Amino acid sequence: MRAKKYSIVLLLLVTAQPVHAAERLTWEQCASEARRAHPDLYSALAVLQQAESDKRITKGALLPQLSIGASSQESGSTAKGGSVSSRFSYSISASQLLFDGHKTANLVSSNEESIKAAQQNYSAVSADVRFSLRSAFTELLKAQDLVALSREIAARRSNNKRLINLRYQGGREHIGSLRQAEADLASATFEVSQAERGLSLAQAKLASAIGRDQHTPLSVEGAFKATELSAVTPDIALLAKQNPLFQELDAQSRAARYELDASRSAFAPQLYLTASVGRSAIDQLSANPLDWNGGVTVSVPIYGGGTGRARVSRAMAVLSQDDAREKSGYLQLYDSLEESWKGFLDARQLVLVRKKFLDAAVERSTIANAQYSNGLLSFNEWIIIENNLVSAKKEYLNAGANLLIAEAQWIHAKGGGLVSQQE
């Protein structure tokens, strides 16, 4: 009687539902909030804004340069009877770059490529954020189902223990079978607690993946189904070149070429158009007429201590590095796409296999329960079938979650981000 009471209390504990209400989110809601709130996207946006500002700074050298100057000076002598005089002046100066060997134009072109690289970096960061978010979303979806499955298994183990205890009391089962049933129930109870702790962890990870500072209980809505159903092998080479990471490396390489051209232009003469107007006077500012001048200034670099050649050499090295990084990045992306596509196909097929195993385990368990109750099946044979059913349910849940992760990896390998809203 005491053992029966203990089993009932234990069953109530493992099947109890959480007392707090969790905020329920769909994948679309998570993605939309992450686009607005994730700090990595803000950081990537700041990099893009910096690149745009660099272009405006560089391009400013092509526009007229204006400046205003004013001065006031007093002079005198400490000798007896010495006089003090004052001198005032002001001027407005202007200059316009006419020619610098296309140095500034190449720098502007380099900045434009840097902007493109920053835009592709934003897309790449968006893809990373999407993958992290999708993984966290899947883990929480799995954790929710695992809690329910663990409670179901615990309830089943509790019923099995009660049945075996009755058979033991009636002399139709030995003590070893009862102890095995008790151990199975203890293990199932532990797995319920473990799943509940895993649920709390998955909730916290999803909140962080969204970009939330506050970590409150969450729940998600979804199914373990892939949205990309095509089995036709894609053009891996084309996808690798379309990936934002490759596009970023390609833009950086083009920017380095413009930097090299700009460094070579440092040896070219610089031609400026200059003009100024002003007025100066002693003691009385308004007494003298305006002074003005205008002309052309030419500056030809002859020797700068070897810094010009050093800059060219450095720019060539940077270009070689960026070209090598671009090739290396392409090879890595190609391999990643191949691996992700294979993993996605394997995961999709494995779900079908695990479903067949689960259907078979359910049928075998139904038959075995009837046979064991009627004494037509031994405990050892029956418990193996029961354990197979438990394993089949867990493996089917894992296969479904792995399918969503594999799909997310495939989309990430293609460079799909939150902005593209690829599911």
How is the topology of this model organized?
Layout: H1 2-14, E1 23-25, H2 27-37, H3 39-59, E2 65-76, E3 84-99, H4 103-169, H5 175-210, E4 218-220, H6 236-242, H7 244-264, E5 270-282, E6 291-299, H8 307-373, H9 379-414
Parallel strand pairs: 1-4
Antiparallel strand pairs: 2-3, 3-5, 5-6
Helix pairs in contact: 1-4, 2-4, 3-4, 4-5, 4-7, 4-9, 6-8, 7-8, 8-9
Offer a few descriptive terms:
423 residues, Outer membrane efflux proteins (OEP), two-stranded parallel sheet, alpha+beta
CATH T-level topology: Outer membrane efflux proteins (OEP)
Q: Give me the number of helical elements.
A: 9
As a percent range, the share of helical residues equals: 55-70%
Please write the string of helix (H) and strand (E) elements.
HEHHEEHHEHHEEHH
Total beta-strand segments: 6
Major beta-sheet overview = 4 strands, antiparallel
Query: How much strand?
Result: 5-15%
Kindly, what is the distance between the CA atoms of the first and last residues, rounded to a whole number of angstroms?
54 Å
The CATH C-level name is Mainly Alpha
The radius of gyration is 38 Å
The coarse overall form would be elongated
Order of adjacent strands in the largest pleated sheet: 2-3-5-6
Second-tier CATH architecture: Up-down Bundle
| Sheet/helix structural class | alpha+beta
Instruction: Tell me the domain tally.
Output: 1
Mean pLDDT score: 89
Task: Note poorly predicted spans.
Answer: 1-19
In CATH, the homologous superfamily goes by the name Outer membrane efflux proteins (OEP)
